Structure formats: structure tokens, C-alpha cells
Amino acid sequence: MDVPPRTVSLTVNGRRIEVRVPDRRLLCDVLRHDLALTGTHVGCEQGDCGACTVLLGSLPIRSCLVLAAAADGAEVTTVEGLALPDGTPGPLQRAFEHHRVPQCGFCAPGLLVALTALLRERSVPTATEVAGAVRGHLCRCTGYHGIVEAVQEAARALPDTPPVLRAVPPRGVRSQCEAGR
């Protein structure tokens, strides 16, 4: 029996959208194929590589593990939404470039999103906290030392703001922390 597509409402990178999707359509597929936000990469399709990480509310999640229907009504931020309002790269993106973090670039969007969540929660993260935030993000090209340096540089460039309280994810969606990364 064919189930008709359902309408899913999302706020993606600050823009309210509605998209009709089959019940089993993954959030990463909606972002990439329906909304043409191809910065969200899909690598392992099992939640192990981190390339598909997006923010659901303020929580970094693996979009290859979340059905679009489960995110109905949520706010989603992709790597495209991390740019400054004028479209230029933000402090973390600039620091990644300065420290030559992305080499092939495949892992960079997921890393940027996960580390943005960390910087929103911890204005001056330690190297251990940075390492914890990128645990489960696979990169075959570079060492992780440059990532730590880039995050610490970006933290110095960001205005002092209080930490963001962690939002509760939609029912049935676990953050990377809860999922054990």
C-alpha cells in the first residue's frame, strides 16, 4: 500500500519552508535533493562519519539518521547557514581556512556545524572539549591539531555571548552526545 507524501514544515537557515516528502525520506536527502543545500555531505549513511551533521535547534545531529518527518516543525541549520548575513565566511570558517583544516573538504561542513554548536555552548572551549565535539567525525586528510587551533582562534574572534541553553530535540531524535557519537 502506497502512503501518500506528507508535508513537512521546517525553518532551514532562517527560511521557513514546506516540502512534500515520503514518510521514509531522510533529512539529509531533503536538504540535498529537495532544497539543493549540497553542503550537507553524505558519506557512510550510518551516522558514523559526521559528514552530514546539521543543527536541529541547537543540537548537532547526523541528518542521515533522522527522517524528515521527525524534524517537522524544527529549525535546521546547515553549513550554508553559518555564513555571515552578507554571505561572507564566519570566524570559524575563516579560521579553518587560515589553519588549512579542510584539504579535500568532504568532512569540513560536518566539522564546522558541530564546532559551531560547541562555540555557542562554550565561548572558550578547551582542546579536550574540541576533541569531544569532533569525536566521530572522520577525516582522512588532516590531523586534528589544526582543528583545535582554528576553534581557539575563532573563539577569540567571537563576541562575548552567554552560552546557549541546549534545546530539547524533537521526539525520537537523539543528539550526537546522547547517541554516543
Overview of this protein structure:
With 181 residues, the protein is an alpha+beta fold. It has two domains: 6-79, Ubiquitin-like (UB roll), CATH 3.10.20; 91-157, [2Fe-2S]-binding domain (DNA polymerase, domain 1), CATH 1.10.150.120. Helices cover 28% and strands 14% of the residues. The chain is built from five helices and five strands, in the order ββαβββαααα. The N and C termini lie far apart (36 Å). Mean pLDDT is 87; it is low at 162-171 and 175-181.
List the helices and strands and how they pair.
Layout: E1 6-12, E2 15-21, H1 27-34, E3 53-56, E4 59-62, E5 75-77, H2 91-98, H3 108-121, H4 127-134, H5 145-157
Parallel strand pairs: 1-5
Antiparallel strand pairs: 1-2, 3-4, 3-5
Mean pLDDT figure: 87
The SSE order reads: EEHEEEHHHH
> What count of domains describes the coordinates?
2
Strand share of the residues?
Answer: 5-15%
Write a concise keyword list for the protein shown above.
single chain, 181 residues, alpha+beta, Ubiquitin-like (UB roll), DNA polymerase, domain 1, 2 domains, five-stranded mixed β-sheet, globular, disordered C terminus
Outline of this structure?
With 181 residues, this protein is α+β, with helices and mostly antiparallel strands.
